[in-house]
Amino acid sequence: MITELANNINKPLLNFHPYPQASERDQWEALPEDLKERIIQNGEVYLDFDYPSLTAADFMEFTRTGNRNRYEDKQFLRRIALDSLVLAECVEHKGRFLDDIINGLYVICEENAWHLPAHNSYIRDTPQFILPDVTRPVIDLFAAETASVVSIAEYLLRQELFDISPFLSEMINKNLKERIFTPYLQEHFWWMGDGFSQMNNWTIWCTQNILLSAFSRDLPKEEKESIMNKAVKSMDYFLSEYGDDGCCDEGAQYFRHAGLCLFNCLFLLNEITDHAFSSVYKSVKIKNIASYIINVHVDDVYYVNFADCSPVAGRCGAREFLFGKMTGNQELMAFAASDYQNSDDPLTLKENNLFYRLQTIFTHSEMMSWDKTSNINHKDIWYESVGIFISRDDHFCLAVKAGDNNDSHNHNDTGSITIYKDGLPLLIDVGVETYSKKTFSPDRYEIWTMQSCYHNLPTFFNGDIQILQKDGEEYMAKQITHQFSPTENRISMDLSSAYPDERIQSYLRTAIHKKGNEIVITDHYEGSLRKAVLSLMFYEEPKVTEDFISIGNLGKLFVTGSSSIQKEKIPIMDKRLQTAWKHDIYRLLITMEHQDLMLKIQ
């Protein structure tokens, strides 16, 4: 779709000018005074900033210990500081921030690698080298994003930097050519796509930042066209991974790196081609990709989550708002504006990507002018392409994950259920801990959060040996049926194929949402493994009584068909998990007495 439009372009590419440079004072001066003050104050935080040192030992730590964060935190802080300084200078325009900006550009251009230690390999899913090969740059997510950061910084302050020294822009252009443009055109990185391999958010996230870097430069016409023509092929490979329903199998958190990066790719292509790609916004698939983020929203900060996605997936802002605007989705615009108004960090001060922050600044007034009380129509939906079922009423939000165990960022969670009541988590999906070397390795499923026994799923036992779900496309839900009606929604599936043991002949799970009343889950098991134990994960502490289980102050759980119920407390010590769960979580282990188990949630 995208490639075909690119092939039909018969006009020269236009100059890149999505937002004003600092020297174009009218639009910067016209920003609201309170906004300008906040931007300047944030830049002042980094005056005389001591950019953190990045050593070879820091880089090697990932290979040696598996720790990603200590290197990444310092690398990201360099970019966040530079972004804040650049925007403050664009607003104030007195030269006060320029020395610290130049220091930032220097230290970033001095880095031996722009990519992360965790991505330090040439071939997908191969062991990482302990140190970067400076003769063969790797373009990963953050090499591409770093390129966009220094590119947009130079674009915004081109005249101001030139007045100090023309060598600054030449330094940036040299680094971009050697680290990004030459390897992009001469090599094939896995995320570029080939029409056969499975793609994910890397494809479109990297492509967006390559386009930002290339279009903001004064490259030769032929080179810019070559980059564009390679990029549009990657965009089509990315889109081929999506069903027409627009569901992101990586979840709401990764939508920010997937659907929204697709939007920015289109935004940038239209910017330099006199809107030659504007017809894409009318595509049903593109419209559905944009709507996805509303459809999986629960309430306030919470989203339906499966796999690595957190239930607290982040506030919406300018990119969602603009995506809604381009696709004619007034509801998405209202949702994004309301979320932006309620955000603790509306200016995305912790965001690496300078272009996103620029978009926020120049969309701020439009988003702030929207009615804060706009109502969002969250609808019932079945996402067939991934197997996500969502049912709602005035109190409950029920989500069921069918599909298979081959999603991007996969957990072994086929058939798992999450429930929210009155906007709060009742039956939960834990999410993922801080990334480490193990997270994306052959040992991934040794991590507890990835395992089916820490999702709302059964575990089978052969003596003392646990039989858990397995990863892979063949481990799937089968015989899936669903039904929506004004009074009752239901989904049913057989989960036996998600487990690698033929002695599990069938495990039929049915979830029924009786609107305005209750949710009923029935499990029926057939097989020769005699013991089946259902795990249920809770945020609020479940208290077991003779008649029912109280779930904090949220509701009651009635269990029929159980021979025993045990409760475990699971401490939340990991920083990434702590962004969603502010206290310990709980697991109930419900042993099936015979073949049938029924849960009623009221």
TrEMBL record:
**Gene3D superfamilies, alphabetized:** 2.70.98.70, Chondroitin AC/alginate lyase
Q: Which domain of life is it from?
A: Bacteria
Where's it mainly located? Answer: other
Pfam families in the cross-refs: Hepar_II_III_C (PF07940)
UniProt domain Heparinase II/III-like C-terminal: residue ranges: 380-532
One term under GO cellular component: cell envelope
Q: Which InterPro entries match?
A: Chondroitin_lyas, Hepar_II_III_C
A single GO molecular function term of this UniProt record: lyase activity
Q: Which SUPFAM superfamilies match?
A: Chondroitin AC/alginate lyase
Subcellular location field: Cell envelope
Q: What is this protein called?
A: Heparinase
